[in-house]
């Protein structure tokens, strides 16, 4: 008899799962989480984060991933649960360099929050303000920083459903429901009274449009080869021009790398190399312009043996100094929300510098 009941329960669960729709009715995709690795009970429900029980009617089968603008990307079939209909959700930003392909953020923020155990002021429906624990009273979801995020800091009123009203800002930016996210390093044991928010103003694009390979590099290689082959062109002007062409080639090479899958541990390194050659390109073109001005000014001008060395020290040295300064600023201020407008943000929105603006 027990065996027949077991078969019957299994049949009912499979039948209910079969009836579950691909999309959960009334639930925005950004309010769902992947339940593929969550334990499932015989009645079809899932256990999320060891504490939240997601019933079967709030789950669905998805074969795509969706961006905040509704763009669907093909993905392997998986189960998602509408957890934000069970508990208020708060989205906290995750830097691109820390976001894994499966959506997991590896910046260690959750462990830091567990040690801090932060509280936030929450306004209830009756208007009273109470303190609520960020980890136990809300579901913390991680959201990837987007291309051209706009960072703003505002005093806020946080409601118990997870939405927030920012003082001095329009009502369209009231909620953080998957369309905006909070700076990950602004929480402490005491409430700061303001929030630093990344507003996703542009369409989500993990691979922003860049130069297409094969367009200019043949001309660069051919021109450089001519200057290296012809002895008369290997004068001071030619050496400066070759150095300038080298920076263009390296800059384009790094820009083309976005068309290939780059391991995340090389992402930040690539970003700083890109900045270095970008700066060197601008400095070498200034050196080239200065040398051309000198040539036009005095046709019979003799070349100094140390002129090219001086140009090289100035160009490569200045680019290295600026890159090093950028690296130090990122190391000291990367986790400071108040300095978000001062740092380069390498590895935030993508491997290179962030394209955001700071507006208070």
UniProtKB/TrEMBL annotation:
Pfam families: Methuselah_N. Coiled coil: none annotated. The keyword Signal applies. It is found in: Cell membrane. Its main location: membrane. The keyword Transmembrane applies. It is a multi-pass membrane protein. SUPFAM superfamilies: Methuselah ectodomain. InterPro entries: GPCR_2-like_7TM, Methusela_ecto_dom_1, Methusela_ecto_dom_2, Methuselah_N_dom, Methuselah_N_sf, Mth_GPCR. Keywords: Cell membrane, Disulfide bond, G-protein coupled receptor, Glycoprotein, Membrane, Receptor, Signal, Transducer, Transmembrane, Transmembrane helix. The chain crosses the membrane at residues 241-260, 272-293, 308-329. It comes from the Eukaryota. Residues 1-22 form the signal peptide. Residues 236-344 form the G-protein coupled receptors family 2 profile domain. Belongs to the G-protein coupled receptor 2 family. Mth subfamily. This is Probable G-protein coupled receptor Mth-like 6. The lineage of its organism: Eukaryota, Metazoa, Ecdysozoa, Arthropoda, Hexapoda. The gene is LOC108080746.
